[in-house]
Amino acid sequence: MTSRQAEIEQMIARMAMGDRQALSALYAATSAKLFAIAVRVLEDRTEAEDALQDIYVKIWHNADRYQVNGLSPMTWLITIARNHAIDRLRARRRARPAPLDEAAELADLSPSPEEQAAAASMRSRIEDCLRRLQPEKADAVRRAYLRGETYEDLARRYGIPLNTIRTWLRRSLLKLRECLGP
Amino acid sequence: MTRWTEEEEEDHALAAEYVLGLLSPEESRAFEARLAVDPEFRALVAVWTEDIAAMAAALPEETPPPRIEAAIRRRLFPEEGQGWLRRLGLLPALIGGFVAALIVLWTTDLGLLQAPPEPLYAASVAAEDGSLVILAHFDPRSGELRLHRQAGTPSPGRSQELWLIAGEAPPVSLGLVPESEESLLTVPEGLRAAMAGGLLAITDEPPGGSPSGTPSGAPIAVGSLTAG
Fold first, then answer.
1. Which domains does chain A have, with CATH numbers?
2. Mind telling me how many Å the CA of A71 is from chain B's nearest CA?
3. Rounded to an integer, what distance in angstroms lies between the CA atom of residue A146 and that of residue A130?
4. Which 150-169 residues of chain B touch chain A by CB within 8 A?
5. What is the model's pTM?
6. pLDDT tens digits, chain B, 228 residues: what are they?
7. Domains of chain B with CATH codes
8. DSSP per residue over B59-85, as a string?
9. In chain A, what residues touch B48 (CB-CB under 8 Å)?
10. B4 at the A interface (CB within 8 A)?
11. How near does any CA of chain B get to the CA of A41, in Å?
């Protein structure tokens, strides 16, 4: 574990003891990362700002559960942020269902050059491995994770029958795992 | 894909689908039931969670506007923002006039200034098994905190640090507890008011005290300060 991870772990541990200063420290260290996730998922800054509040309220209340879940501290925080943003996105879609072929939905989800640079600097294995998949399969993985798209959404998007798309994506996920290693 | 059995492939695919949120609600429930009883499966899911989260970790950072942090603190700790200005804003509505409110505030303030001599406070800071007992006497006027070690000494090569825990505030260090039987600490002026009714706690720390400024572990002895 890197020293930064150890620091974040300590902040979470202190938050679990009710240390409010630790919350400020954790916010300073992680909010730009978690806000980026909320913005990316929700594609709406105002809503991402509300989501970010909820995310830190959740982190504060669940800090005492961190130790037992076995994830690295950043992954734990990212998962809380991503799941909350996806829940909001799904609620928004239910509230005003928009056809999936709307212009916004066709936004290209492949990483921008800026994102690619950031990814490269982090030597992100996942991005390397996604690049080895067929582009639309990598795109489907990103859409599921960062846009909360379901098999139904993906089947419609790629014009593939529902039963086929699951086989199609599962095969890609296994390839991804082979590339990522154990 | 020859290195996996069909079962292993199925597990990997399921774990990935779960992490990506692709399972139906019924499938998710069945998945979570298995997760609860199958540690190997749990480890597999943790690996997928780490790898997939890296996708989000690779996004370029975006700094949220400063007001967001303030909003979070207001939601979590509403009492933090209740300063005089806020009370001045609320009281007039309660008693029907701004001037009346000011008078009430003034007299309350004066009343506080002319309070009768404050009592002395005492605490018995003790471990549950009695292996460490330290009596503490606090004089709020001088800020003197007298410690009387009745049982227990620090472990060899370790220090014992004394903390004040007042309400919801994070623990504040009052210093190291000297090894001697009798000792005297001075509580900084800014902390004296918080001592009354506060909780004193002792933690086991590296020599010289906690390097982080917050307790390294759970207290080994606690006791609350009450008026004696």
1. 1-97 (1.10.1740.10), 101-182 (1.10.10.10)
2. 6
3. 14
4. 168-169
5. 0.61
6. 457 888 899 999 999 999 999 999 999 999 999 988 999 999 999 999 999 999 998 899 999 998 999 999 999 998 775 443 343 344 444 444 455 445 555 545 544 444 445 568 888 888 877 888 898 989 888 888 999 898 888 888 888 999 888 776 778 889 999 888 888 888 988 888 888 878 888 988 888 888 887 887 777 888 888 876
7. 6-57 (no CATH), 67-113 (no CATH), 121-227 (2.60.40.200)
8. SPP-PPPTHHHHHHHHHH-GGGG--HH
9. 177
10. yes
11. 10
